[in-house]
Amino acid sequence: MAARPAPEDLGGGVWSVPVPIPGNPLNYTLVYALESPSGPVLVDAGWEHEEAWAVLKDGLATFGMDIADVHGVVVTHYHPDHAGLAGRVRAASGAWIAMHGADAAVVRMFHDAVREDADRSWESAALRRAGAPADEVAVASGEGRVDPPAVPDRELADGDLVDLPGRALRAIHTPGHSPGHICLHLEDTGRVFTGDHVLPRITPHIGLYPYDLPGVDPLGDFLGSLGKVGGLPADQVLPAHQYRFTGLSDRAAEIVAHHEERIAEVLDLLSGRPVSLWDLTAGLTWRHPWAEMTRQARRMAAGEAAAHLRVLERRGIARRAGDGEPLRFVVA
Asked: Out of 3.60.15.10, 3.20.20.80, 3.40.50.880, 2.30.40.10, which CATH number does the structure's domain 8-256 have?
């Protein structure tokens, strides 16, 4: 695991505060603070955790900023390592929280679902449909669970300018990693904040949840979104993880090529004989052997496999075999 870097003044009224993600191999989220006459605006906020909260406050203080002076938090997407602390920042400062409308809808739905089903039985139902064995379906109490983030005050759409007085920070809708993921183009400096959409060495998780959710194609959306940002005039790319880099267009093309290879690998496991989503997922190549992966990792892997299968379905190359359980697939 790479060491967490120190807070850094990036020049041009932009600062970086690496906020820890306890127990996660990503190690930290890069939270950015942007200068404005009304107080700093944060791009993302970090994971909801006492250590993360202390590091965020201390990191801002390094540059003479008080958490109570934050003007707003624009969240690239609703995931907990990005939106988790936004509610605490708002409580401490009165700041607004903004995210794309599609992710705001997910957050509201998440709150409603947890309120109505505290045991989150939908997780077990999804695993049964995937064809997971009984011991995988039995969800351990609290395993891998996080609370939904704060509901935003403001919703953004593609092309909207964020409330950053005196500067031009434009939202670019880049769905895939989440339905409402946004990148942010700071037009007065040529910098692009990519959240998790484009990272310098790794690719974000693209999953379909539930595994057979109709009418959506997260990986197809993601591949299209990569083409959208690849043409931006970006002098510097500021992602939410790892490190800053240049060459946005080239990196976007590399990620597209990676997923095309992955789509081909999924197709190689299909034939005229139906295979369950779970068995197909187990047959794919992962960073760690399938038998050594945690239950949470296997569930996420199934979501990724389902997203790649959806692309194959949309392309007319694969199809569902019947409508019953478990989900099974064949070549078209």
From this structure: 3.60.15.10
